[in-house]
Amino acid sequence: MRLNFKKLILTMAVAGIVSACSHINDNSPDKMVRTGVQQMILKDNRLNFSGSFQGEYHINPNTNNEDEISSDTSEINKTNETHNNLLNTASKSLPQTEADDDDDDDESKPKNSLAPFFEQFSQSFSVPFTGAIDIRKGQMEIIPEVRYENKNVLVSFKFPTYIDFKNLSLYTDVSAITHLLDKIPHTRMVIGDKYLQLAVLKSQIKNMPLSDLLKSLPKSIDDGYAAIDRDAFKKVNVDEYGKTLKAKYQVNLNVDYALMQKIDNTMLESLSKALKEAADKADQNSKYKPEDYAALQNIIDEFTSTFNSYFFDEHDSDDSGVFKNPYFGVIKQFKNNQNPIQYNYYFDLKGRIIGIREQLAFPKEVESIDGTVKIDTKIHLKYTTNPKFTMQPPTPQNSINIMSRPELN
Question: Cα 125 to the chain's mean position, in Å?
Fold first, then answer.
């Protein structure tokens, strides 16, 4: 009797696993991603994570060879032939300045004399990171490590950072550099081991319905994904990185900079719409008044307008202020660019996202870079009921609010 009972339990367990796997396999690739993202935000929203940010800089050779691409980029090409052609185009050499007739040798020289330096530096530079998230409490911790490693050299700086979403506060431990800066004569302020705090004044957010804004985020994020063509999602075999995560399924999402702009706008518009609907339902007896929602909606709308205007729209040369900075000119060159960006989503048997990888190449139009820049970001998610935060909880006693200290501004 006991043996039969064990068999029954085992059979039910196996049936449950098979049923779960069958349910996941029945989902379309886009639904797998959208469901996984919502599950991560609304249900399995306590986790630790680790990952790395790796950049590559390659000098553009004086050739039209389209085959010289990194192995990481070739993974993108295997999943989407259209994006393959686009990425190969991005790997072509940038237009070279015409050399003088009497100096043909200059044609083979990189336009930027610092290009070899940047190429060598990128091969040794990386930013590994770890962290924790507790969405229910509105808390996040991330500890990036700026790392340079090569023969006989190892340089490492860590900047533990804590974010309190409910109070719009960010705390950073910058003791990696302040332990030296504090010793410089005539230093305006000694930081010591205290956190640097960047926070919106409570008087400014007292009447802002931030809780309603946070509640609207999951739907706004899903609206952003819904703006993507379903054909952009492809279910593929688990790649080598996914195997290190022990992933069971993998979905690749191929987009470009122009589509990313559309996704961002869709999410911001969804947030604005949610605030407007909340304002319509509110009255003078509600915790937040209609004018409170309207004020926050205006902030979202103004941010959307500024985001599109200064980063993606054309302006005349008389622009002044920070947006006249040449770096903003570089950012504008990303507008409507069709260079592929690939996101890989890795799933476990429960349909949870356990890893994300982003691979992209800078547009060839960004000529000031004078080379090919590729970025590879990997994130491994580990779900838990008790995420591990390593930083000491921020308090007024162990923090310095730089927003209220004029000597630091």
Answer: 19
pLDDT greater than 80 at residue 2: no
What are the angstrom distances between the C-alpha of 394 and each of 49, 100, 194, 390, 402?
Answer: 21, 62, 9, 12, 14
At 305, is the secondary structure helix, strand, or coil?
A: helix
Quick: pLDDT tens for 85-122.
444 444 444 444 444 444 555 555 545 467 788 888 88
Q: Strand 153-158 and strand 139-150: pairing?
A: antiparallel
Contact in structure between 193 and 280 (CB atoms under 8 Å): no
- Residue 225 and residue 34 in contact, taking contact as beta carbons nearer than 8 Å: yes
Q: Pick the residue with more confidence: 19 or 307?
A: 307
Q: pLDDT digits over 39-77, tens only?
A: 999 999 999 999 999 998 887 765 444 444 444 445 544
Whole-number Å distance between alpha carbons of 58 and 322 = 30
Q: Tell me the pLDDT of the chain averaged across its residues.
A: 79
Burial class (CB in 10 A: 0-12, 13-18, 19+), 86: buried
Q: Which of 150, 152, 153, 90 is nearest to 120 (CA)?
A: 150
Residue 201 banded pLDDT, cuts 50, 70, 90: confident
Q: For 7-46, give the DSSP string.
A: HHHHHHHHHHHHHHHHHHHHS-HHHHHHHHHHHHHHTS-E
E strands present in 135-207: 139-150, 153-158, 161-164, 169-172, 195-199
Residues contacting residue 33 through CB under 8 Å, at least 6 positions apart: 225, 233, 251, 253, 345, 353
Which of the four pLDDT bands, split at 50, 70 and 90, describes residue 337? Answer: low
Query: How long, in residues, is the chain?
Result: 409
Residue 405 CA to residue 177 CA, distance in Å, equals: 19
Instruction: Count CB atoms within 10 A of the CB of residue 242.
Output: 21
